[in-house]
Amino acid sequence: MRKTEGLKPERVFYYFEELTKIPRCSYDEQRVSDYLKSVGEGLGLQVIQDKALNIIIRKPGTKGYEDKPIVIIQGHMDMVCEKADDCDIDFSKDPIPFEIEGDFMVAKKTTLGADNGIAVAMGLAILESEDIPHPPIELLVTTNEESGMTGAKELDVNNLKGKILINIDSEEEGTLLVSCAGGTRLMVTAPLEWTEPKNKAYELRISGLKGGHSGMEIDKGRGNSNRLLARVLSGMQKLDYQLLHIEGGSKSNAIPRLSVAKITLDKDNLEKARELAKEYQEAFRNELATSDSGVQVTLEETEMTDKAIANGVRDRIISAMMLIPTGVQSMSQDIEGLVESSNNMGVVTTLHDRVTIENAIRSSVKTLKEYIAAQIGVLAESLSLQWETSGDYPAWEYRKDSYIRDVFIEAHREVAGKDPNVEAIHAGLECGLFDEVMDDVDMISLGPDMAGVHAPGEKLSISSTERTFKLLLEALKKIN
């Protein structure tokens, strides 16, 4: 029996449960793209699968709606694959384990993939329906949204005929998004020099943090494990430790929850290091009492490696991690409560010849995005480190006059009995890319209530999904 049996809307949850069975981390989307292609072809619909594995499925309008404006329903097929430390799931082959708990679908030790599987499921449910009135539909499902939006960047928009686009990649019911931040990835690289290790090896670990989406939750004051690890390592420099290895975070667009450094210490400094770890844990718990009170700083013996990072390089790495601007950088002066600019120092990795520090910069103002990148670049160069940017994507600017916004406001009044919230968002949406390359496209973004997106424990509200789907169907009926 299906776990989602009996949930409404039935076919939406049917398709969403099917998606939980298909591996679809960013860069591993061949199988899910082929599945979507097979579903569309099985329904007798026109399907386009491009070289980037993006999928477009076309369905004519239902009776009486044949000549209405073509509507693009859009989402992305990939998901952020995060798991708890004690979870042994293999995202390349295992289904996503989830439970139904009251009103929620919950993945307790992994991400659920409701971001953005629920959009795909809603689109497929509409495509297969025989009793939902709607204008001509183009279901557009893109690839690799979570790691650079490369699917949207490589999309040939000449394959799309619609001029109205409904993006279902938001996470708060009752809120219509009409603008989003742009962003870029910035990599700082420290070429490594090695020396012979001495004394015993220990693992310094920062854990117990909540993490979360680096756009949606960057303003919640949650701890960044990479920054916290740098603070402890900086405080321990007087103990004459060697750095063997350092790593933290797994996705640049997820606030890092776990960071680890392997270091060496002599026996005379071991107890001092343990005391410092306790002191920093107390300090962090005090600083993060509201947002991340479960933070832990531990120091345990581990296996020795055959080489250590030279102290000069070590110091430059720790200095960079201490000084790279992290978190909210500016707030909007026009929209109350909106984060305008931020940076997330998301991933630190030790490779055989270098340590890399990957950042996700976001801003609704292009020049501020460029300024933060330049600021990090100046810092890197002052420390004799290398840096480069990639994966740049534009902001989606607010449109004063929007037909589809008016349609959804009216539909929301009828379905929910009240006006929706109309807002901008600090997270990046593919709408920014579509706005840049599609002539005169009118867009809106919405979605059901989710929590813990991009972190283990992600959950999706069942009742909110049903209400959001009803809102979508009501809006489709109104498009003229």
Account of the protein in words:
- It is a single chain.
- With 480 residues, this protein is of the alpha+beta class.
- Helix content is 30%, strand content 28%.
- It has eleven helices and 25 strands.
- It has helices at 10-20, 30-42, 114-128, 150-154, 225-235, 267-287, 311-323, 366-382, 403-416, 431-437, 462-478, and strands spanning 46-49, 55-59, 71-76, 99-101, 104-106, 137-142, 164-167, 175-180, 182-191, 194-195, 200-207, 212-213, 242-248, 254-255, 259-265, 296-301, 308-309, 327-331, 339-350, 354-363, 386-393, 421-425, 442-445, 450-451, 459-461.
- It has a six-stranded mixed β-sheet, with helices on one face. The chain has a five-stranded antiparallel β-sheet with strand order 18-19-20-9-21.
- A hairpin with a 5-residue loop joins strand 1 and strand 2 (55-59).
- The protein starts with 9 loop residues before the first helix and ends with a helix.
- The model has no long low-confidence stretch (mean pLDDT 96).
